[in-house]
Design goal:
single chain, 309 residues, Rossmann fold, seven-stranded mixed β-sheet, 9 helices, 28% helix, binds NADP nicotinamide-adenine-dinucleotide phosphate
Length: 309
């Protein structure tokens, strides 16, 4: 089978398509014949920034059919349609995943929609829930056009936010963001981000973090869920009694699996009701993984970037 790995750190050009043996699932694992693979900013950063052993493997959300059920696994059979988080070679025609990280894909939903919806949607819902929203709260989402962000905008709307502000790096994304239901669209370098909000969901971090905190109304809450790092001055939290909390999906999935399952059902339900739209910016063959990474590095995506083996 074909898979993609990297043997040196760098830009998208270091990704290498290679032939490899089909992996075997161990106890508690499934082998999935992938029909779609989600590409995420953390993987793009992993290739560029290093700090991981070489050869580098690329993880992520996969969706497809179960090809082999590993020893001791219950609840899954060969042929089942699943989506799962893969921590080994996700960029491959077939991937081994932990059965604990797999969930069924409902009848009628496609594999591309599944990888675009589940992981990113869980991060968006989890970040929103971490803000402890109150009825009528206003919400600002940074990175609003991205894989997570475009779902966060819609979920804030669906969960009853009074006003949703979508923030992005470029004005070219404004039409897309309004189409998702954003009441207002701002660019990061705008002089004003409009009236302060009760909740900020921050996907960007880094130097943008202080602007994101400044966008909070008194008593406002910022949820930091980006891999972009950044620093917040304690005094900026003291003024107006603002607060910041972090959200990490992997931790929540490990300690509150029932909560995460509830979110997953909510996502599929909203999709089925037509209250949530999954936007796929690009569907590319596995052999064009480098192009998928280029799109993300260029900050050009409107929604999710997906590889189709
Ligand atoms: N906490 C968790 O458990 C968890 C899980 C998954 C992902 N995340 C985080 O969620 C964020 C969004 O992830 P995603 O998968 O939705 O990303 P994505 O769809 O791949 O989004 C990429 C978008 O992020 C924005 N961006 C901000 N800083 C960037 C940078 N330095 N380089 C490239 N793009 C940048 C760009 O839009 P603009 O230019 O418009 O900002 C870009 O279009 C990431 O920070 C990721 O690490 C967190």
């Amino acid at each position: 089978m074909r898979r993609v790995r990297f043997y040196e750190y760098g830009g998208p050009e270091v990704l290498r398509v290679e032939e490899a043996e089909v992996p075997r699932p161990g106890p508690g694992e499934l082998l999935v014949r992938n029909e779609a693979i989600g590409v995420t900013l953390p993987m793009v950063r992993k290739v560029r920034d290093g700090g991981v052993p070489l050869p580098g493997v690329l993880g992520g959300e996969v969706a497809g059919r179960v090809a082999v059920v590993g020893p001791g696994v219950t609840g899954f059979a060969v042929g089942d349609r699943v989506t799962a988080l893969c921590f080994t070679d996700a960029y491959a025609e077939q991937s081994v995943v932990s059965a604990a990280m797999a969930s069924p894909v409902p009848e009628g939903a496609g594999a591309v929609a599944a990888v675009a919806l589940v992981r990113s949607g869980l991060v968006a819902l989890g970040a929103y829930a971490s803000a402890r929203p109150e009825p009528g709260d206003s919400v600002l989402v940074t990175g609003a056009a991205g894989g997570v962000g475009h779902l966060a905008v819609q979920l804030a709307r669906a969960r009853g936010a009074s006003r949703v502000v979508a923030a992005a790096g470029s004005a070219a994304k404004a039409g897309f963001l309004r189409g998702l239901g954003a009441d207002e669209v701002v660019c990061y370098d705008d002089a004003s981000w409009g009236e302060p909000v009760d909740i900020v969901l921050d996907a960007v971090g880094g130097e943008l973090l202080s602007s994101a905190v400044a966008a909070l109304a008194p008593g406002g809450r910022l949820v930091a869920y980006s891999s972009g790092g950044g620093t917040i001055a304690a005094y900026d939290l003291l003024v107006g009694g603002r607060s910041v909390t972090g959200f990490q999906m992997a931790r929540t999935a490990a300690i509150r699996p029932a909560l995460v399952e509830g979110w997953r059902q909510e996502l599929w339900g909203l999709l089925a009701e037509g209250r949530l739209t999954v936007s796929v910016h690009a569907e590319l063959p596995l052999t064009e993984a480098a192009e998928a990474h280029r799109i993300i590095e260029a900050r050009a995506n409107l929604g999710k970037v997906v590889l189709v083996p």
